[in-house]
Amino acid sequence: MTEQTSSYAPVPLAEVEQFDHTTDVVVVGYGLAGAAAAIEAARAGASVTLLERFSGPGGSSAQSGGELYLGGGTRVQKALGIEDSVEAMEAYLVAALGPHADEEKIRLYSQGSVEHFDWFDAMGVDFHETLWESTGWMPFTNDGLMWLGENAWPYTEIATPAPRGHRPPAPGFAGGALMEKVTATVEAEGVDVRLDTRALALVVDETGAVVGLRAKGFAGETTIRATKGVVLTTGGFVDNERMLADHAPDLLGHGKVSDGGDDGSGIEMGIAAGAATRRMSAIEVSLTFTTAMASRGILVNALGQRFVTEDTYPGVPSHAALHQPGPVWVIMDEEGFDSLSTGETWGAQPKHAAETVEELESDLGLPAGSLAHTIALYNEGAARGEDPLFHKNATWVHELKAPFAAFDPADMARAAGSSTTGFSGFTLGGLHTDVDGRVRRSTGGFVPGLYAAGRAASGMHGYGYVSGTSLGDGSFFGRRAGRAAAGA
Amino acid sequence: MTEQTSSYAPVPLAEVEQFDHTTDVVVVGYGLAGAAAAIEAARAGASVTLLERFSGPGGSSAQSGGELYLGGGTRVQKALGIEDSVEAMEAYLVAALGPHADEEKIRLYSQGSVEHFDWFDAMGVDFHETLWESTGWMPFTNDGLMWLGENAWPYTEIATPAPRGHRPPAPGFAGGALMEKVTATVEAEGVDVRLDTRALALVVDETGAVVGLRAKGFAGETTIRATKGVVLTTGGFVDNERMLADHAPDLLGHGKVSDGGDDGSGIEMGIAAGAATRRMSAIEVSLTFTTAMASRGILVNALGQRFVTEDTYPGVPSHAALHQPGPVWVIMDEEGFDSLSTGETWGAQPKHAAETVEELESDLGLPAGSLAHTIALYNEGAARGEDPLFHKNATWVHELKAPFAAFDPADMARAAGSSTTGFSGFTLGGLHTDVDGRVRRSTGGFVPGLYAAGRAASGMHGYGYVSGTSLGDGSFFGRRAGRAAAGA
Fold first, then answer.
1. Can you tell me the distance from the alpha carbon of B135 to that of A218, in angstroms, rounded to the nearest whole number?
2. Cβ atoms < 10 Å from Cβ of B124
3. Which stretch of DSSP H or E encloses residue A77?
4. Three-state DSSP class for A332?
5. Which residues of B touch A391 (CB under 8 A)?
6. Do A280 and B280 touch (CB under 8 A)?
7. What is the mean pLDDT of residues A205-226?
8. Do A367 and B389 touch (CB under 8 A)?
9. Which residue from A minimizes the CA distance to B3?
10. Is B305's Cβ below 8 Å from some Cβ in A?
11. Nearest residue on chain A to B380, alpha-carbon basis
12. Global confidence as pTM
């Protein structure tokens, strides 16, 4: 690997001859977290300058699925007659974002979730009062609510299930529709937005406090005085190969879920100013496949073993698959495949079809007898109407009968050109913040004047992930960081 | 969790009124890495002061198994007629210490391995020219050589196997015997050793270069000028709960393999001086059990599935078990148990015994039918004299017949009081060094005057581990750091 070096060493205040511009709060990075911080800082009465390196707003948020993980009784949940509680939401998130989720952040997030829904609602994000009943990634519908694993084992034994995946009315990736409303609000609040402007370094005074920022735009370098604080919302570091190798090598070689600008610049600027980091190895990773298919059959590893509940949020099998002997396969029979509705297969074609399980083992290179015993055990449970290993919902469990077909869950990602391995992901670790976005100093206490949110920070996540929790905690804690920076 | 804070903020040179002592090289931490650095710096002509917080030398190294992973044709290997090569050793380590092992460090380590053996040999470490043939942790013999997974699948397909676990003649934990010779050499080289002396902070000049160290002993604080460099060999951070929570939460709640002083102080001092870190989430973890037993039977998870080669270095099943649905069990039949030699069971008693596999599934709380199918598949392979899933050596493979016994691999650790969970471990990540121990700066380049080795640094390891590679890379790269600090 070539040696990538980057220098985000802070600029000492004493070396700044003059500031080109003075504002209360500087926000760096115009994704959802940055927009949320800017809106709330402005509403708290602060003058806000929002910098974005690219020519348009949105960041990786605008390219995302657009889900917001919200619950506890939102307007959409209530209209659909869905009972939910803060406690159930909190218990689910602690389990699903774990192990080692941040329980304090999750508690606040769950308690504030209905208000956070209303915040988006008030800016015109139009959540339809309809539920997409299936499991999976983004639906190709305008439905406003979806399940994200809450009704799958083992979570069913941990918390009363309720669907909490809220999304704007856009088929597939809805992040653009979400960010359209959010950026309109940023403009309405009078935020000074500067596109094509790349942050170079923080400005720190002799006590180590952050008092400004140096940036570079088309007109050259500019040094901005931030009288109240700087909020880093620059995203994660999946686009920085050196940082991945040092901190999150699980993602090396896989596809990148980003807008191309998630190079960890904000994290590195923070570290250079003395910031502590947290959970730098934590990642989100996904295989592009449909759990609708896997649920009707079984998902097996290269030893012919099942390893995960098939009818859960698809990120769970994706993450598990990354650490299984691979490749992994979706095995289906005709009854299972025929039970799929149009649209649930995403056009997937079997890679192998076989008249017998022995033939399929041979075709897939599985150890002789391994898949036969896995299917026999599965069928013994199915005859009793249950899945004794992973407690898949009985709705999807039926005895598997030859002939069989095997699907490669990575096929769709490869066909789409998004990943040669089938896996794509982004990083979850970053600057170590408190619940108001204050960045901790590595030697104790905080770095005065410095705040962070979104994937530049370590948020609610431990080592698990669910759709909607990155936009969710980025916006929720982005808002808190904006208010804190404004001194509200 | 209570908020642990520690301040290792560096002392600016301008604030040092006077130095109490001046030396060329200061080494912090008197385990094997520190001793190696001190010896080599002294031999290169430098005056060396070696600080140790505890009242005696040795650190965690003295409490370890004492294995040194060495090969490529050592005296012991040659005397036993074992053929080995640098290339085979390198290929094995890249695989066994991976994924994501440091290939540059492994290459140098393998190339220098015979010379490194001779370095220990010359100081009187008495490696016997006898081979312990079995697999497992430290033997209760004086044998000088042992296997550490080289002859187990999949490594047999990656590199020509040779035993490379070298150890001094001491039954069980041999780290004390090793350190006895090493500390005698430190004394013989005229190193200024200061026990009961705890490092408090680095002293840095106005350019950020490390020029000394402040420490505290019985006589109060002392500030030492290091004209050539400071070498941090303070160990990892398994004894620091806050650092574990932030960086390596997999070890939270488990036993600690340390002398009680592995609190990450050196890593934090380095970070506070601008150092970069690497692989802070990487860990070693072990279950106290014998692979001699597991090899004669099977190791299964809480779903009744096998998940690992049983006859490999026991750290491999240990690490795998940490991420399996637990508890895990060793299942044996009478033929397997009776084939064990005295000493191979470590006195282990079955937790459950059952006349039938169905009864055993019930006793262990395994899903109905799960273990039955696992044993049936295993027996089909055994009838062919093979293990199609994990390619365990055919020597150990036989058809498993009722009655069965189940052993809990965590029992011995719990009985010894070393861990309530059965798992114990230590951290592998730390300061980001080059092959000469120079500590990288987070903003690029290096921190002048600062070196690190041993578990205070990120060494050869990716996310795998083999006995002897921590003492091995600690001493090998400790020597290089000592020479580099001395300006050799």
1. 65
2. 12
3. helix A75-79
4. strand
5. none
6. yes
7. 96
8. yes
9. A444
10. yes
11. A369
12. 0.96
